[in-house]
Amino acid sequence: xxxxxxxxxxxxxxxxxxxxxxxxxxxxxxxxxxxxxxxxxxxxxxxxxxxxxxxxxxxxxxxxxxxxxxxxxxxxxxxxxxxxxxxxxxxxxxxxxxxxxxxxxxxxxxxxxxxxxxxxxxxxxxxxxxxxxxxxxxx
Length: 139
Description:
Elements: H1 25-32, E1 40-45, E2 48-54, H2 55-62, H3 73-76, H4 79-82, E3 84-85, E4 89-90, H5 96-104, E5 110-115, E6 118-124, H6 125-138
Parallel strand pairs: 4-5
Antiparallel strand pairs: 1-2, 2-3, 5-6
């Protein structure tokens, strides 16, 4: 199997939930509470990628707050306060091999798939592992 010839489009999640820098953390909390949600949320402003919030970033940002929606931190902090700028990205023309190489470095666990700054999808380490497991079951 030549991974350099298999498109990242074959494994990326294209139904991506994004937030804007001005949204409060209560919105982020509610997104993370959804079942089967990726642990990363792209931050988009005026249609262009501006950053990313991981579950770890969120937990670090809320510090010792409980999960009660009334906690002040969820209403006083905003996405821009905890997001990481310049997340890892690849174009939709990238191969699974390119994405796997970036993820294998261990610095990130998700890559935003963008074309000209516009989010097209996301690929996580788990997505790549699931692809390989499915591929090995077909053999």
